[in-house]
Structures are given as structure tokens and as C-alpha cells.
């Protein structure tokens, strides 16, 4: 089990609503990345945060936004939810000073949009 | 688009048999990693192989890397029911801290 924790574990929202997902990174890790995993697919990179700033973004619209806090924890916000946003959202932490190392994933938040 | 593609998409074997999964990728890499995912939960890192390595072992896992063919394989020996999971290969795009995953191989170990 990694030291990355995500909350909540499950969430049901209505189309058009907004959602905030939370992630606490592993101790000593200053970089947090968020991934979206649709059913039966591999995880897709949403964005990464380092030193409280976005440090790379995947092919996701601006209604996907994030924050990183001084303690390196992070939030993922999604506005104007669409049915296709239903997925498992994964948070991963790494130590940016160590390039291309393993990522430590949380257990994910299962978001269902109805 | 996916950087890596796993093959087969699904694999079902008897307990005790060996399981082999393959991964192909598109661009130059520094390393390639394999992850396991149980029942739609978080991913667990299994093994990392660097681009200058050809083979690596960890317990019952054996990973090979052929950079000339841009491919890797994961072998699980003496499989157990607990090995039932989805397995993903992943690489970092050069110059980015962005892990790119394949679609995974769904492995089922039958008792």
C-alpha cells in the first residue's frame, strides 16, 4: 500500500454539477499527477502539479482544473460535468528531483455522472 | 493516443502456469515500467527497466526490453489466483513527467 490517499472513494454527481476530488501525496514527494481512467482503458494523463503550479497538461478541456497546496496535497476540480466524465480518477505522486522514476498511486475516486 | 499497447488484451490460464504479456511503444524511452491494477483500484508499481537493460527479475516477475523493436514483455511464473488483475506498461514521454499507459492486459488465473 502506498502513502497516497484519495477522497472520496466513490461519488455520484448530476450532469452540469461541479466536483472536487482530493489527494494527499506520499511523504517527501513534491509532485502530484492526476489521471482519468475510463472503464476498460488505461489511465490518461490530465495534468501535473509541482510547487503549487501546473507543470504539464494532457488533452483535457479547461473545465478540468487543479490546485496544489504547500503541503503538496492536491485537488482536482471538474466543472460542468458531462456523462463522459464518469471514470476512475487516480492521483499519483513522485519526487520531481528524481527523473522518470516510479509513481505511487492512490486507490482512486470512482466518479459517476448521471 | 496511447504510447504503449499491450497484447493480449485478455489472458486466462490455470494456476501454476506461466503468463506472458507483451507491450509495444512508439517513441524513444529512458525506461519502461509495469503496473498492476486489481479490480479498478489504484495502480501498484511492479518493476522498472531502463533503456540500457535487456532483462530484469523481481521475484516471480521477469521483464525484457528490446529497444530496437520498441517492445517489452512481462513474464509471471508459477501464477497464483492473487495474480488476477490488469497489467499495464507505461513510459515517460521524453522531456515530460507524463506517464503514458497502454490499454492493459486483463489476466485471470483459474484455480
Helix-strand sequence of chain A: EEEEEEEEEEE
Helix content of chain B: under 10%
The string of secondary-structure elements of chain B, in order, is: EEEEEEEEEEE
Residue-averaged pLDDT of chain B? 92
Overall 3D shape of chain A: globular
Output the radius of gyration of chain B: 13 Å
Distance between the termini of chain A: 31 Å
Q: CATH topology of chain B, anyone? A: Immunoglobulin-like
The largest chain-to-chain contact, stated as pair and per-chain residue counts, equals: A-B, 33 and 24 residues
pLDDT averaged over residues of chain A: 92
Strand content of chain B: over 45%
Structural account:
The complex is a heterodimer of chains A (114) and B (111). Chain A is an all-beta fold. Helices cover 0% and strands 50% of the residues of chain A. Chain A has strands at 5-7, 10-13, 19-24, 31-37, 44-50, 53-57, 64-68, 74-78, 87-94, 104-105, 109-113. In chain A, the strands form 2 sheets. In chain A, strands 2, 4, 5, 6, 9, 10 and 11 form a 7-stranded mixed sheet that branches. In chain A, strands 1-3-8-7 form a 4-stranded antiparallel sheet, with no helix packed on it. Chain B has a single domain (5-110), classed as Immunoglobulin-like, CATH 2.60.40.10. In chain B, the strands form 2 sheets. In chain B, strands 2, 4, 5, 9, 10 and 11 form a 6-stranded mixed sheet that branches. In chain B, strands 1-3-8-7-6 form a 5-stranded antiparallel sheet, with no helix packed on it. At the A-B interface, β4, β5, β9 and β10 of A face β4, β5 and β10 of B.
Amino acid at each position: 500500500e502506498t502513502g497516497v490517499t484519495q477522497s472520496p472513494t466513490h461519488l455520484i454527481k448530476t450532469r452540469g454539477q461541479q466536483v472536487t476530488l482530493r489527494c494527499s501525496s506520499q511523504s517527501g514527494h513534491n509532485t502530484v499527477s492526476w489521471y482519468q481512467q475510463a472503464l476498460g482503458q488505461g489511465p490518461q494523463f490530465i495534468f501535473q502539479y509541482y510547487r503549487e503550479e501546473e507543470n504539464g497538461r494532457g488533452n483535457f478541456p479547461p473545465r478540468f482544473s487543479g490546485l496544489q497546496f504547500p503541503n503538496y496535497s492536491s485537488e482536482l476540480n471538474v466543472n460542468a460535468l458531462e456523462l463522459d466524465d464518469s471514470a476512475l480518477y487516480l492521483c499519483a505522486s513522485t519526487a520531481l528531483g528524481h527523473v522518470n522514476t516510479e509513481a505511487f498511486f492512490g486507490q482512486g475516486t470512482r466518479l459517476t455522472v448521471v | 493516443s496511447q504510447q504503449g499497447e499491450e497484447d493480449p488484451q485478455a489472458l486466462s490460464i490455470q494456476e501454476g502456469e506461466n503468463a506472458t504479456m507483451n507491450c509495444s511503444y512508439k517513441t524513444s524511452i529512458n525506461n519502461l515500467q509495469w503496473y498492476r491494477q486489481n479490480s479498478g483500484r489504484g495502480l501498484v508499481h511492479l518493476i522498472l527497466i531502463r533503456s540500457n537493460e535487456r532483462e530484469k527479475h523481481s521475484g516471480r516477475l521477469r521483464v525484457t526490453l528490446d529497444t530496437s523493436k520498441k517492445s517489452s514483455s512481462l513474464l509471471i511464473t508459477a501464477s497464483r489466483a492473487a495474480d488476477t488483475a490488469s497489467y499495464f506498461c507505461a513510459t515517460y514521454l521524453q522531456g515530460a513527467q507524463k506517464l503514458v499507459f497502454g490499454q492493459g492486459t486483463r489476466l485471470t488465473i483459474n484455480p
